[in-house]
Design a protein that fits this description.
The protein is of the alpha/beta class. The chain is 41% helix and 16% strand. The chain has 23 helices and 16 strands. It is globular.
Length: 539
C-alpha cells in the first residue's frame, strides 16, 4: 500500500490515492479539491481500463482519475531473468530468488520477467534444477505482479525450430504453470515464425507482446522496424516491444520508431534496451516522450553494463513527472540491498567485459547474454586473450550472413563461427552445422543477401525434420514424472536424460571462480565430412 500525491500529475492541490496492487486501485479520496465537497470512490482497473464503481459527485474527477491511471509508466523488472543472464551467465539459483519476491511483489512493477530465454536450459545444465518447478515457485510468490517470460517463437526456449504441436503444448503448460505475459520474438524478424505462437498464447488467455528485434545495418531502417511491427500487430498482440538486446538503440531512433509504431498500429509500445553502449537510459527518456508505455529495468546490483538500466536511476530521472509515482521506492531499495549480497555469491561469473559500458558493441553488436556466456567459456579455457579477435570477426560473419540481428539463436551461430574462424586462422575453413542450416533458409528468411562464398560452400539440402511429441522414445518416457518432462526432453534430449537420471552435478557459485571445467566438443564440417573437434582448457 502506498499513498501518492495527485498534484504531481494533474495540478490539483490535494488528492490521496491508495494503491493496493498493480491491477486494482482502491479508496480514492478527494478532500477539499478546488473548494468542492470531499467524496470517496472505489475504482477498479483491469487491463488498463478504469471503471468507476461508485458515484463521483463531479464528473471531472473521473476524468482526472482515468488520466492518472492510464498515464502511469508500466515497469517490467528483469533482475532474475535478463539481468542475471547478461551479467552472471544465468547462474543464479532459485533459492537466491525466492526470499525477496514477496517484497518485490509490493513494489508496483507491472511484471517480473522471470522465465524463458536461457534460464530454462541453464537451470538444468548448471544448477541441476527443474525450470518448471522454478516457474511454479515464483508464481506462488507473486500475488500482484505478472510473471513474464521470453519465448523465441518457433524456437521456444531452444536453439532450433520445433513442430506446431510442441509449440502449442509448451505455451499451454507455461501458462498453466504460471506465465501471465508472453514476449515472443523471432531472431530474423521473420513474422511467419511468430503467428502460431502468438495465436496459441492468445487462445489460452495470456497477455502477448510481440517483439521487433532491433539492430543496426545498412538494411535496417526506421521504416523497416515499423513495417515489422505492423505485420506483428495483425496477429492481435496486446503490445509491441522493441527488443534492443545489444544496446544499439540511439535516442533519436527510439523516438522515431516508437512514434511510428504507435501511429501505424495504435498499440502500446514497450522498450527493452541493454546498457552495453551507454545509450539505454537516454533512449528510454526519448521513447517515453514519443509515447512508450512500458520499460524494462533491473535492480541496480543486476543493472548497467550488459544488462538493463537500473530502476533507481530511471525513477530519479522521471521524478516529478508522476509516471513512476506508483512504485514504492523503499521496497525497491530493500530489494536492491538483498541482491547486492546475492551478487557477491556470483562474482566469479562476472567480468569487466559485461560490467562496464563498452561503445565497441556498436561495432561487434554482441548482446549482453551472449557476451556474458562467451566470457565464462573463454575463462574456462584460459583463452580470454582471444576476445578482441573474436569481437572483430563477429561483424564480418554477420555481414556475410545478410546482417541477421544478434539474438538467440543467431548470436550463438554467428559467435561460434567467429570463434572457429579465429581458432583455425581461416575464415569458413570449418563451418558449423547450424550455420549451414541458416544459409539453407531453414531458420527463416534472412534479412539481407548471404555472401556468394557461403552459398558456394553450403550445398542445398531439405529442411531438417522438426521434433514432435510423437518422436519421444519409450526409453525416455519411462523417466518422466510429469507431463512437462516430455517438453523438457524434446527441447534438450541429452541434457534432459542426464537430469532425469540424476547425473548432473550442481556447481556452487564458489566453484565457478574461473576454474576450468569439462572438455568441450564441437561438431564442424570440413568439406563434405562432419567431424568432432575437442577443445581442452589449460590448467
Amino acid at each position: 500500500m502506498s499513498t501518492i500525491p495527485w498534484d504531481s500529475v494533474s495540478g490539483i492541490r490535494t488528492v490521496e490515492l491508495t494503491v493496493a496492487n498493480n491491477n486494482i486501485v482502491k479508496d480514492i479520496k478527494v478532500p477539499n479539491v478546488r473548494s468542492e465537497q470531499s467524496h470517496t470512490s472505489t475504482v477498479e482497473r483491469e487491463w488498463g481500463l478504469t471503471i468507476v464503481k461508485q458515484y463521483i459527485f463531479k464528473r471531472r474527477y473521473e476524468v482526472y482519475i482515468s488520466s492518472w491511471v492510464n498515464g502511469l509508466l508500466k515497469v517490467v523488472d528483469t533482475t532474475v531473468r535478463d539481468g542475471q543472464q547478461s551479467l552472471f551467465a544465468t547462474r543464479m539459483k532459485t533459492d537466491d530468488i525466492l526470499p525477496i519476491l514477496e517484497k518485490m511483489d509490493d513494489v508496483g512493477f507491472y511484471g517480473m520477467e522471470a522465465w524463458g530465454g536461457a534460464t530454462f536450459d541453464s537451470c538444468i545444465r548448471y544448477l541441476n534444477e527443474d525450470p518448471w518447478e522454478r516457474l511454479r515457485k515464483i508464481k506462488r510468490s507473486l500475488k500482484k505482479t505478472k510473471v513474464v517470460m521470453l519465448l523465441r517463437g518457433k524456437n521456444i526456449v531452444g536453439y532450433r525450430h520445433y513442430s506446431d504441436d510442441v509449440v502449442e503444448a509448451f505455451i499451454k503448460r507455461s501458462f498453466e504453470n504460471g506465465v501471465d505475459v508472453f514476449r515472443i520474438f523471432d531472431a530474423l524478424n521473420d513474422t511467419a515464425n511468430l503467428g502460431r505462437a502468438i495465436k496459441i498464447a492468445r487462445d489460452v488467455g495470456a497477455e502477448v507482446h510481440g517483439d521487433v528485434v532491433y539492430t543496426v545495418s545498412p538494411i535496417h531502417t526506421v521504416d523497416h522496424f515499423i513495417d515489422v511491427a505492423k505485420q506483428i500487430a495483425e496477429f492481435g498482440v496486446d503490445a509491441i516491444r522493441i527488443k534492443d538486446m545489444a544496446g544499439l538503440l540511439a535516442p533519436r531512433a527510439a523516438y522515431d520508431i516508437v512514434r511510428g509504431i504507435k501511429k501505424e498500429t495504435g498499440l502500446p509500445v514497450a522498450l527493452h534496451c541493454h546498457y552495453t553502449c551507454g545509450l539505454a537510459s537516454l533512449s528510454y527518456i526519448r521513447g517515453i516522450e514519443a509515447g512508450a508505455e512500458f520499460i524494462d529495468t533491473a535492480l541496480f546490483p543486476f543493472a548497467f553494463g550488459a544488462s538493463q538500466p537500473a530502476i533507481e536511476t530511471v525513477y530519479e530521472a522521471l521524478r516529478g513527472s508522476g509516471l513512476l509515482a506508483h512504485l514504492n521506492l523503499e521496497h525497491i531499495n530493500e530489494a536492491a540491498d538483498y541482491f547486492e549480497d546475492v551478487r557477491e555469491k556470483y562474482r566469479g561469473y562476472a567480468s569487466e567485459a559485461t560490467d562496464r559500458i563498452d561503445p565497441r558493441a556498436l561495432r561487434h553488436q554482441i548482446p549482453g547474454g551472449m557476451l556474458s556466456n562467451l566470457v565464462v567459456q573463454l575463462k574456462e579455457y584460459n583463452a580470454l586473450s582471444k576476445m578482441d579477435a573474436v569481437l572483430a570477426e563477429v561483424p564480418e560473419v554477420r555481414r556475410d550472413l545478410g546482417y541477421p540481428p544478434l539474438v538467440t539463436p543467431m548470436s550463438q551461430i554467428v559467435g561460434t563461427q567467429a570463434v572457429m574462424n579465429v581458432i583455425t586462422g581461416k575464415r569458413y575453413g570449418m563451418i558449423t552445422k547450424e550455420l549451414e542450416t541458416y544459409v539453407r533458409g531453414h531458420y527463416g528468411k534472412p534479412p539481407g543477401t548471404i555472401s556468394r562464398i557461403l552459398l558456394e560452400k553450403v550445398a542445398p539440402a531439405p529442411p531438417p525434420k522438426l521434433p514432435t511429441l510423437a518422436d519421444i522414445p519409450d526409453s525416455a518416457k519411462i523417466r518422466f514424472k510429469k507431463e512437462e518432462d516430455a517438453l523438457t526432453y524434446l527441447l534438450f534430449p541429452q541434457l534432459a536424460m542426464a537430469f532425469f537420471k540424476g547425473e548432473i552435478r550442481k556447481i556452487e557459485p564458489e566453484e565457478g571462480q574461473g576454474k576450468r571445467k569439462e572438455v568441450k566438443w564441437f561438431k564442424v564440417k570440413i568439406g563434405g565430412e562432419e567431424i568432432e573437434v575437442k577443445i581442452e582448457g589449460q590448467d
